Amino acid sequence: MKVKEGYIMKKLGTGYVVVTVGQASKDFNGMIRLNPAGAYLWQSVLDGADTKEKLVQAMLTRYDDLDEETARKDLDEFLDTVALALEE
Amino acid sequence: MFQIEAAGLVIRLENRYDYVRNLCRDYITDPDRPADITAAVSEEELRREIEKAPECFFGDGYAEGVVMYEKISNALPAFDAFVMHSSVVEVGGKAYCFAAESGTGKSTHTRYWKEALGDRVMVINGDKPIYRFVCQGDGSSDTLMAYGTPWCGKENWQTRTSAPLAALCLLERGEENAVYPVDAFELLGELTKHFHLPGGGQVDMPKLMELVDRMVTTVPVFRLRCRNDISAAEEAIRYFGLGGEKE
Known about the structure:
The complex is a heterodimer. Chain A is an alpha+beta fold. Chain A has one domain. Chain A contains 4 helices and 5 strands. In chain A, strand 2 and strand 3 form a beta hairpin. In chain A, helix 3 (52-62) crosses helix 4. Chain B is an alpha+beta fold. Chain B folds into 2 domains: 2-79, no CATH class; 81-239, Alpha-Beta Complex (Phosphoenolpyruvate Carboxykinase, domain 3). Chain B has helices at residues 18-23, 43-52, 60-75, 106-117, 188-193, 205-218, 230-239, and strands at 2-6, 9-14, 28-29, 37-40, 81-83, 87-91, 94-99, 121-125, 130-136, 141-147, 162-173, 178-181, 221-226. In chain B, helix 4 packs across helix 7 (230-239). The model of chain B has no long low-confidence stretch (mean pLDDT 91). Chains A and B meet through strand 2 and strand 3 of A and helix 6 of B.
């Protein structure tokens, strides 16, 4: 998976938002809110974690007290939230 | 054609109707100054505005003014500025703004502040003030200023002045009064609804989000739950330590 062209993440207050620029604004003219953990996953996708397995590993590396089952559940929630901003 | 100065910007208005010039009379500046923003309304844009809400038609000149302010609003983010649908008052050199959906009671709440504080309160703008970031002094600090503009809602509350914004209050109606700080990120959907961004999709979203981030990191955001009487204003005035005594 990768981030679609035109979708970018910005810091906003205590969290982050994903918004669109250029052509992508025609498909989506809103914002997706991400908490810091979501922002970390977004950055991981940008950095090349292009499969669920790589993202789970990224989470387990980052958060010491996280178990794999919770990580997979949290990852699914994240992927639902940002579904329209990602592509295969 | 004439020029106004608002929020420290020179704005050229290429008007066809006298209404706009009259509306802007307190803000007129030298026509030879270089303009930061130019607003002109085509015949087609004017007709479209009139057709949008024929029941709110107050004349071609009025419609021209509305579209001009939409154009100005869309041009502001490039100058670290934006229009937020809100009422903003000045007390003791600082600005307090009340943002709410139309019909929630922004104007009523503002009126209660006027009743409670008398001459100590001044309405900078009752409906669509401009907010703009300015660097003070050595350039290290980032201050969000609230500015009066000619476009100000049906009460005609506006003053050609400015003040640093001390608090952003998101108004809601309630059975009991309450004022408490909130995490703006949690209320982002509500907050961004108040941005005056006509003609959806024209605004530079990343730039706007940068401005929202700067706003919520430099200005405290509060929920202001209000009963529909003067006690709501008195509660807020007490909370912000502004004293409730009329001079």
